[in-house]
Input
Amino acid sequence: MDSEKRSHQGYEVTETCTVEGIELVIGHNPSAPNPYVCWYCKNGTDYYWGYYTNELQTAREKLVERYREKCGILRSPLTQEKRIQESYER
Output
């Protein structure tokens, strides 16, 4: 069974993920000046803090950044390990 498509402000929701009860979504509107957006969403209808961009990849990067913030992962483990190693080398 196909799920119903969602849209907000003319943007069709194309990608979603949920973390700690908050949904992160990417929307696309090919007619908009910035055709991609990354929003937070509560209850499937309350969209807020939109980050508008011209590139899908940039919207995905913002989604990943927000996901990591919600999970408390501000940097990748590899980056953290590299910074620790560099501090010992000084």
Q: What stands out?
A: Residues 7-89 form one domain.
